[in-house]
Design a protein that fits this description.
By secondary structure, this protein is mainly α. It is built from 12 helices and 2 strands. The longest helix has about 35 residues.
Amino acid sequence: MIVFWKRFSRSKLAMFGLAIVLAVIVAALVGRFVVPYDPAAQNIIKRLQPPLALGKNGIHWLGTEALGRDIFSRLIVGAQVSLLVGVCSVVVSSLVGITLGIVAGYEDRYLGKFLMGITDVQLAIPFLVLALAVVAVLGPSLFNLIVVLGLTNWVQYARVVRAEVLVLRDREYVQAAKALGASTPRILIKHLLPNVMSSVIVISSLLVAKMILFESSLSFLGLGVPPSTPTWGAMIAEGRNYIANAWWVAAMPGLAIFLTVVGINLVGDRLRDMLDPRLKQLEN
């Protein structure tokens, strides 16, 4: 672990990204308990106040929106929704994609071709169109959003895992396990799964950022979580009508999305450089 951290910390960009990610995680975990204002409390008198405006409980650091709600408090609470959707949907995607990919790679005949056919069909359907259709039918809720994002983004895992398993299944240790009478589930879980986890970790680290963008897009369109829950995408949608005279209403949540996605991508890029054997040799 110490060696891993030393290698990771060599990259200043990765450390910058990690600082952003940790800040968002802390905000998501404890932010609701330390925000200066109730994120749902309306105060029409204080509507569209600029950043650093004085308020009843102190300063509105990022200003207020059209209903007088504190933007900073709503951003902090919105971080919890974004991270929860991003992480949980990636967990769902990885479970589905790894299962299908490892089975399709090991049994690369009728079953493998059938599973890859499903993958090709999934790739042929535009994600946003599919997500809009499913969410419109099921209705906006946090659970439905996680399920939709999770079940529409497993293809990356399936294709990468299958490609690696096609190579690993002919290795000596796998053949030895077969000769000793190991069952197929045991070979898949004990011998093949650990050897594809480095790729899975890299994909997951980058896919979290993608999921946050998707959640913000659906919330912007009104198909994310219920309107009573502050989300960054919904905040941008609410502020788009006030860009001319109150730019901060839409700019602040947009900046939060930008920094979070950049931070996660920087960490993911560093993990890729460290875990990819070819890039590891170049680094050394």
